[in-house]
Here is the input.
Amino acid sequence: MRDEWEVTFTLAPVMINLDRYHKLTGSISIAFFAWAKTHQDALSSRERLIAILDEGLSDETVRSAFEMH
Here is the structure.
């Protein structure tokens, strides 16, 4: 089975201001659609996409790219 996905990433800066803690960091929003012939195939495709995104975004190289200095 071939997966067909549409994925949109939105990156935004976020300033955290607490009593003694101030840091500029980043936020990522992900919207996606998974197309398939059946509802069950779409759910399975969605789960594969989530696993791939989790693996990719958990990589230290990717995580460090989102750090704001």
